[in-house]
Amino acid sequence: MRLAILSDTHDHLWVLRDALPQIASADAALHCGDLCSPFIVKHLAAGLAGKPVHIVWGNNEGDVRLMAQIALAQGNVTLHGALAELTFAGVRVAMNHYPEIARRLAESGHYDLVCYGHDHQAHQERVGECLLLNPGEMMGLNGPRSFAFYDTDTRQAEFVPLP
After folding, report:
1. d(CA 79, CA 84)
2. Above 90 in pLDDT, residue 143?
């Protein structure tokens, strides 16, 4: 199974639109927070054409009530709040927005993959048997834009640079 992992979109709809054909090649998408506006939820859900989209809150979410309404209407979006705990093809995944929380989750030994965002820095490292992963930022504030794919069979991640 192939997961698309993204974070820190910050309303950059044109970047998301350009990336959606690649993101849609995944079986599911995980967003680690800071979408900002509700319209990002709608475009992400539509771009994944009915595939599961899992979202955790960041520190810059706007109208979360409208986001919830849009997610419900789309039918393929799950809003998890601050933390998501998921399993894909036997891979135990945790997702949140903050690096310090993500590191503790990875150190717990309960997960195979822990994803986070917030600091806008693409990063991956092994913490015991867990892969700690920040897919980078869609926004492009602190460097190159990117997202990541994760393969549940190989348990490897690859960063995808964006223009």
Report:
1. 9
2. no
